[in-house]
Amino acid sequence: MAALTIAVGTGNWFSALALGVTLLKCLLIPTYHSTDFEVHRNWLAITHSLPISQWYYEATSEWTLDYPPFFAWFEYILSHVAKYFDQEMLNVHNLNYSSSRTLLFQRFSVIFTDILFVYAVHECCKCIGGKKVGKELTEKPKFILSVLLLWNFGLLIVDHIHFQYNGFLFGLMLLSIARLFQKRHIEGAFLFAVLLHFKHIYLYVAPAYGVYLLRSYCFTANKPDGSIRWNSFSSVRVISLGLVVFLVSALSLGPFLALNQLPQVFSRLFPFKRGLCHAYWAPNFWALYNALDKVLSVIGLKLKFLDPNKIPKASMTSGLVQQFQHTVLPSVTPLATLICTLIAILPSIFCLWFKPQGPRGFLRCLILCALSSFMFGWHVHEKAILLAILPMSLLSVGKAGDASVFLILTTTGHYSLFPLLFTAPELPIKILLMLLFTIYSISSLKTLFRKEKPLFNWVETFYLLGLGPLEVGCEFVFPLTSWKLKYPFIPLLLTSVYCAVGITYAWFKLYVSVLIDPPVDKTKKQ
After folding, report:
1. Helical H runs in 330-378?
2. DSSP for residue 329
3. Which ranges of 66-215 does DSSP label H, i.e. alpha helix?
């Protein structure tokens, strides 16, 4: 805080925020790390010691390479630095290898690549004006936004405790969004195309990019009422966009096309043989669906409507990634989740085309695409909620309604990540960090919108406060009960279902605001 005070006085507050969170990341180096640590170590070994023709076939470890080619090349580049730390980490046959030098290298590689995320946040702050309230720097929208992004609790624990490389990937996405706000459409399209070839989960938001670029870039003018001028279509701009996407895709997939390995690459990227839900149910519609099926099956057994011998043996709460059949409700297929997802995103796409609201409209559509895919997608990971939380931060400093949605979504979504850190030493860390981030988020946004109506109604307040008793029950009370051995999945089930209610509510609330808001961008040029 002393460093921040000095920096504020000299005008270097952003650098102070970035430096402060970097120091915190360094302090988290010795903490618990998940199996994702071994996943990325194995990918370092694969890309370093094997020819490219074997990258997507290698299966010595169960943690096979299942990210797009650009990420594989990213691991390849990292591996040539890693060899100076510990050559043994680059041996494909050294399964579950770990050493102090390996730990330091992998932790610092995440911290170092976060430089791109810091730069992207800085660029986003240039684009977001928001309300101007108060004379204090800490009450300015740009300062608040910087804290909400740089010190985001979810990103901190997922990348710097659990272990992943989401920081620089979200940096690419935020930088792409910033370029679209700055009307640098080709750069924005290029950055997003690159991002897709780093991690294909960002396909969730591709419809928002495609429709917005077609509507705002390929059509160059609107009518006075905001509707499109069809004769303003620019074929040159369409070709430019297509060329950017084609060249990026060719650079990424070209080598594997030449090796006739594209089917193998895609089979790794889209493993539909996995189950509907991840080991820990992501807090989405399917968590509620699964829970309802469980309740109905219990009632059916009690009332003897169901035959115990005919109930599917595969458990949805066993902590395993597997396929299963529902007991009472219809079982869900990948095609069904795809249809549900498409139906869920269509209204937001419709609004983006027919109710143009400029870059903010695009950002809202992007968030709704991310949330809809999270709500109804196949085998969704709980960490995917960050795909909606981070861009929602940009909206939160602009309007009180968006701030309310952000706080509900963020508080609930962040709490849903708690089961990722299940070891005792990390319990006080995750509780403290989340409390600090949540308190700051609520207090700063309440100050920013203090002249408007309260950000929460009594029902929303009651729901968010309910997270406290839920945490006490799951972490401290349940382990003392006899149910711990017989029903070990109950804390996960309660957390997933409770958080699913909040995330569903935030998704619905944001959707309503998008549908009822009138078009505001009636300028001739977008």
Report:
1. 334-354, 358-376
2. S
3. 69-82, 100-113, 115-127, 141-150, 153-157, 166-181, 185-196, 206-213
What percentage of residues in the chain have a pLDDT greater than 90?
Answer: 73
Q: Is residue 179 very low, low, confident or very high in pLDDT (cuts 50, 70, 90)?
A: very high
- 385-406 b/e (C-beta count within 10 Å ≥ 16 → b): bbbbbbbbbbbbbbbbbbbbbb
pLDDT digits (tens, 9 = 90+) for 92-119: 999 999 999 999 999 999 999 999 999 9
Enumerate residues 6+ apart whose C-beta is below 8 A from 345: 207, 368, 369, 372, 373
Q: How far apart are CA 433 and CA 152, in angstroms?
A: 9
What was the pLDDT predicted at 230? 85
CA angle, corner 318, sides to 314 and 320, nearest 5? 85
| Residue 229, pLDDT score | 83
The one-letter amino acid at 227: S
Rounded to whole angstroms, how far apart are CA atoms 134 and 80? 50
pTM here? 0.92
Q: 11: left (phi > 0), else alpha (psi -120 to 50), else beta?
A: left
Please report which confidence band the pLDDT of residue 270 belongs to, taking 50, 70 and 90 as the band edges.
confident
Question: Average pLDDT in the 406-423 region?
Answer: 95
pLDDT average, residue stretch 316-328: 56
Taking the mean position of all CA atoms in its chain, how far away is CA 431? Answer: 20
Q: Compute the distance between CA of residue 414 and CA of residue 385 in angstroms, rounded to an integer.
A: 8
Return left, alpha or beta for 134; rule: phi > 0 is left, psi -120 to 50 is alpha, else beta.
left
pLDDT value at 481 more than 60: yes
CA 504/CA 97 separation, integer angstroms: 40
DSSP string, 461-482: HHHHHTHHHHHHIIIIIGGGST
What is the spatial distance between Cα 220 and Cα 516, in angstroms, rounded to a whole number?
A: 26
